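Copper amine oxidase N-terminal domain-containing protein, pasting as requested.
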Amino acid sequence: MIKNVIKAALLCAVMGYTQESMAQSVANYANTQIQQIIKQGKIGSIIKLDGFLRTDFPKIGFTQRVMPGPQFIISDDPEYIRVPEAIALQEDVVPGAVRLYVYNVNGVKEPQKITRKITAVIKNTGKEVMSIRMLKYSSQKPSTNYFEIGKKGLEDYFSSIVQNDVRKVQPGEVIAIDEQLEKNVVGYDELVHGFYEFVVDQPAQISVLQTAPENSGPKAFANIKNIIPHSHGNAGRGLFGVSNYAVASKDTLDTKNGISQLIIADGNDDPWITGTIGADKAYARNAGNYGVLYNTKIKWKSTDGKGLALITWNSRSADNQWCGGMGLTMELFDNKGNKVVRQLPNNALITKAAPEAILVEIYKPDPTKAVQEINFTYSPPGASCLPTPLILVPVDLK
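Structure tokens follow.
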């Protein structure tokens, strides 16, 4: 595309255009080329937009409110559990809904690398029999491919419909939250990734621990006394009161006004959620808002007849060695409320850097409606650097 833009500029110069008119002509030509590439792209796949992607597109103003949601626990401090037998997280919850995000790695390498089990257990700390009812279940096979696990974990969570999964726990009894974690053997540097939502009707204590593969989680819990101190590293760990956000555009976008982008989960315009760690209620921060769901609605209209393409890209690729790739999963709704869960990109594991972008969706203008709405659920993608800009590009679909 760059060669074509140069040709356009030379042609303008030969024809005697002014510098201002030449710049406008080149911009129009480039815009046309970008639109063509977007229109010819496959939904969910990587497209290449030479010379187009940048971080300073105009931001979409948005309102954000906390939605009712479960108590939220994340286990990612330490991410790499270096101690063979230890508890990496322990939090008390009250009766009600709980979301648990397990993101831990077998990091034992001294005196040698060994296989481990990383599992999550729950103890009934109440005085009556406790029911634990699973609502959402996502559990991946341990792997060193963190991007694949992060994408698949969110896909399974969004798609999960759990029915008739109720277990009874006696007062003082400890059971495994996920029986699959009890079966996994975790090699060195392999990530254990679990994303769950469940309801309990008694006070309970939730622990994430590492032990030998032959030990059951509940039995190991009875014998392990050491809880790894928190370091405020990685995304963090702890108990948080915010788990769901409702995000809405402040104004109605108009396609005639050009490109705009929604920036959430950046730690600035959208601060990281805070909570507490452990029994002493130490300060906790989820640096990335990983595991938080953003129920997003953007109003738009088309006074020039164009549609809107939703794209994203890895805007952090040049920052450091950890930001070289990005992959995510989103839950998208059409104007009838029908849901599709889409791994992004769907034709590769990750997108690396500009000029690569992911074509998330194309929204067509409806001439019968003065205002339309884009509706999706976004959650910060595990293993990826943030933010992941959500860019809306007007496209002539005729």
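Note for the archive: The first strand starts at residue 46 and ends at 48.
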